[in-house]
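Q: I have 261 residues here and want to know how they pack in 3D. Can you give me a structure?
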Amino acid sequence: LAATFASTGTASSFLHPSEALHGDLGMIQEQDVVLALAFGGETRETLEVVKFANRRSIPVIALTGRSDSSLAQLSQVVLDGRVEREACPLNLAPTTSTSVAMGLGDALAVAIMRAKGFEKQDFAAFHPDGSLGRQLSLVSQHMKTDLLAIAASDDFHRVLEVITAHNYGIAGVLDEKKQLIGAITDGDLRRALKNAREKVFSLHAKDIMTGNPKTISADRLALDAVKMMEQARITSLFVNNDLGEVVGLIRMHDLLAAKVV
């Protein structure tokens, strides 16, 4: 439970009641809330920790199977974790009760997430590594930023130079206000050569480009970029900042290499 709270933006740590009575009570601070778990609600060490919290006016949430237990009486909030019987054939080993406690704890973590407005981007910030971290990475972490721009009036030679400079297979076309108005891919170049033949060298970027290219914000999830490219059946997206300016390019090739998908 402590790990679930921490990974969803609520600072928490596990405190063993026996170790608490031998110095670890110092982990509990005035701004904290104590979540105390004890099915029967009469564990001496747990009760001593709760009494310590009460003396310092630190709120206590009890998760117990007995609402009339000492733990429940000492707590400000009681979560009812009662069960009819344990899954253990002897009805002795904590089995069903521990599952219920885990479920209630997770429900509490989810309720806090909703109350705080915890979003995917927040979750990503706490999981920067591993497969989960890669899936929650941002577009800004994968985009290419060393882009060369093409003006709508640029001739074919300039277009060819930019397209082949970084081997990205695509370049953006900007208007006089530096706004993205189109894109030219290496496929567009091949089609221009095929259709215009010897007249291709008289063409300009505005004659070759495809208008209204797809874009995505730098702070979106990389998985969102994958979905957009799959839906549009393309392999690249231009990346915009809050002002609508092109700041990068994200490619399906790079996301596959980074094992985002």
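Q: Anything worth noting?
A: The chain has two domains: 2-118, 139-257. The radius of gyration is 30 Å.
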